[in-house]
Description:
Helices cover 87% and strands 0% of the residues. The protein is mostly helical. It has a single domain (5-91), classed as CATH 1.20.58.110. It is elongated, with a radius of gyration of 18 Å.
Amino acid sequence: MANIKSAKKRVLTSEKNRIQNAAARSRLRTYIKKVLHAVATGDVEKAQAAFREATPVIDSSVNKGLIHRNKAARSKSRLSARIKALGQKAAA
């Protein structure tokens, strides 16, 4: 355990940040899973609505430093491609 006052404070701050980051990461994963679940069920409208909800959550995760901006772009691109493929499958 830390003996110096600033080190003790740093331990407390780090723990607080770790808990906040874990909650934000869990929220991000939940929103992505909602889109994937909607795609799996084959509901295009529900998938598009879930994607619209997930997009700002993904973007805010980048601003908070949870994920890299390229990972966010890749995630949004892949989700969008799945929804687009689902829409084309439904139209055919």
